[in-house]
Design brief:
mainly alpha, 3 domains, extended, two-stranded antiparallel ribbon, hpI Integrase, Chain A, DNA polymerase, domain 1, 5% strand, three-stranded antiparallel sheet
Length: 343
């Protein structure tokens, strides 16, 4: 018997020489396909754990930043508690919906649930490419995007409170973050070889998007770097650990959390320093495409979150019409004078 599924022609034996029985088996198979209950042999053999291992080895650890790969590993750990022992054909839209409902009941944040399900959906899409599955059960499930609007940045007064509550090396990191918009790992990975004080730029070789990025430095950062340049650590890192290795993020956050508690700014995250950089630029009227390049965003969509911080840019837009009107009036006056002289 043969049938088509997801645009692909499948040939399968009915394993019987009885024509009437074969017809019944064929009819049953068509019903299973229509109801989404039939899967190819690979989907009945391959397990969720196999999918997880191949996804991590061939996609996550190769194509994503180390920090993101670790986050994927954590998401799979949660998913494995429900799907770990299942074969791929048993991962249905119903089971996925049940997982989503249970995570909501457990009080897990919607953004976390969305990230877990997004990774599962992507893994299944790759499984379809590998011919492990024929269709993605997520086609029947709607994933609601969380509200990612920027809601927190720090004022100049709050910046002073935070700096006054920080140790000297943490104070330097905070100043660098607020004045460059660099991500946490970009700062911790930064080496002197990436800094050009003469050109007043820092060249990031490894970013979240795995693309090179050059950031111009303002005078505040230049003064900071010139001060640190007097005594460079042999490791080459701008902010090395006591052992001379790359400073661990957990140690940075430990001191950062202590500083924000002392300053009374317990709702501030380290990543909000990057938001502060972008927000201050937007409030000063800097073009969003310039902010996009400075932040290293792949698309303008992420940067558009800061657009509402610059309402005056809208005013300058409509004021162009006034200038156009003035030009037209001037042109008409010149034309009228020219006509009067000719008469």
């Amino acid at each position: 018997m043969s049938f088509r599924i997801s645009g692909r022609r499948i040939f399968e034996s009915t394993e019987t020489a009885n024509k009437k029985l074969a017809e019944k088996i064929y009819a049953k198979r068509l019903t299973e396909i229509t109801e989404g209950k039939w899967f190819p042999n690979e989907a009945r053999k391959r397990t969720f754990d196999e999918l997880k291992e191949r996804y991590m080895a061939e996609h996550s650890r190769i194509n994503k930043a180390p920090k993101t790969a670790i986050r994927d590993e954590g998401a799979f750990k949660c998913l494995s508690k429900v799907f770990g022992e299942l074969v791929l054909s048993d991962i249905t839209s119903g089971r996925i919906s049940d997982y989503k409902s249970q995570r909501i009941k457990d009080g897990v944040k919607s953004a976390t649930i969305l990230r877990e399900l997004a990774i599962l959906r992507h893994a299944i899409n790759l499984a379809i490419q590998w011919e492990w599955m024929e269709a993605n059960p997520f086609s029947k499930i709607k994933l609601i995007q969380p509200n990612n609007k920027v809601e927190r940045w720090i004022t100049l007064e709050e910046e002073k409170l935070l700096l006054d509550s920080s140790t000297p090396w943490l104070r330097e990191i905070i100043i660098l973050a607020i004045n460059t918009g660099m991500r946490q790992d970009e700062i911790l990975s930064l080496q002197w070889s990436q800094i050009d004080l003469f050109r007043r730029v820092v060249c990031l070789l490894i970013t979240k998007n795995k693309e090179k990025r050059t950031i111009p430095l303002n005078q505040t950062v230049i003064d900071l770097l010139k001060s640190k340049n007097r005594v460079r650590h042999i490791s080459g890192y701008l902010f090395p650990s006591q052992a001379g290795t790359k400073l661990d993020a957990s140690n940075l956050l430990k001191y950062f959390y202590d500083a924000r508690e002392k300053s009374g700014l317990e709702d501030v995250r380290f990543h909000d320093l990057r938001h502060t950089f972008a927000t201050r630029l937007a409030q000063a009227g800097v073009d969003l495409y310039v902010i996009k390049e400075l932040l290293g965003h792949k698309t303008i969509t992420m940067t558009l979150r800061y657009a509402h911080h610059n309402p005056e840019s809208l005013r300058s837009g409509v004021e162009v019409l006034d200038r156009i009107g003035d030009i037209l009036v001037t042109v008409r006056e010149k034309e009228d004078r020219a006509k009067a002289v000719s008469h």
